[in-house]
Design a protein that fits this description.
Length: 168
């Protein structure tokens, strides 16, 4: 069996103890996904699995056999950068850039959650089919991704411009 990573089939590691993060970085040489805390607390290793965001440092690669994984390298389209990648540039949503791939993958996953109408801890109207995307909503949904450099305002601005129709 295989894992589909950024549209390409790749063999599952023979060692079932290999994390998805280590498989991406060490076996496949996809270094965009970063190893931050290696404990699931910082979000630097966030990738998308079948469109949902996960922290890859806590996931065993064998768990994702037959599934589709998208890393930062797989987000750009035929026409160039993903719109969120471009927004990060325009809003200075990075300083050192270490957390940026995880932030971007997490925000793409967050947008899919919003489309499905999934509420967060700060969603005002839990009965509504649509979540009103405010700055507070974006901040709450991105709270699992840490930026230690101080680019937080640029990150939130980039995400809000890209995904939040009603951002404050």
């Amino acid at each position: 069996m295989a894992i589909r990573i950024n549209g390409n089939e790749t063999a599952v590691p023979a060692d079932p103890r290999v994390s998805l993060l280590d498989h991406l970085r060490e076996t496949l040489h996809l270094h965009g996904t970063k190893k931050g805390c290696n404990q699931g607390a910082c979000g630097a290793c966030t990738v998308l699995v079948d469109g949902e965001r996960i922290v890859s440092c806590l996931a065993l690669a064998v768990q994702y056999e037959g599934r589709s994984v998208t890393t930062i390298e797989g987000l750009n389209g035929e026409s160039g950068l993903h719109p969120l990648q471009q927004a990060f540039i325009e809003h200075d949503g990075f300083q050192c850039g270490y957390c940026t791939p995880g932030q971007i993958c997490s925000a793409v996953g967050m947008a899919a959650e919003l489309e499905r109408g999934m509420p967060s801890a700060v969603t005002a109207d839990l009965c509504s089919d649509a979540v009103v995307v405010t700055r507070e909503e974006v901040r709450e949904r991105m709270s699992g991704n840490l930026c230690r450099c101080g680019a937080h305002n640029g990150i939130i601005a980039a995400i809000s411009e890209t995904y939040a129709e009603a951002a404050e």
